[in-house]
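Sequence, structure tokens reproduced for reference:
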Amino acid sequence: KKSEVSGVMAKADIKPKSIHHAKKWSDDVENLYRFQQAGYRDEVEYKQVKQVDMVECWPETGFVKKLQRRDNTFYYYNKQRECEDKEVHKVKVYVY
């Protein structure tokens, strides 16, 4: 049987309408890069899967600080930019 939480999440099961690859680095691309490294599309999917309301971010930069992968290991990220220019084109940007 489903718990109440998954029932709430089911109706919030938002799927992206389209997808494109990032052309240049931005704060948003940086955070998408971090979610995708941890095995998620983006913040929307992370919150659905992990059933959390908040993602831990660095107050100075607003970048994602810590993410829990699906196998429950944690990824920790630096305050500074981690997505190098040569990685930017690999980042998928989902449109809802």
Summary: The chain has one domain: 27-95.
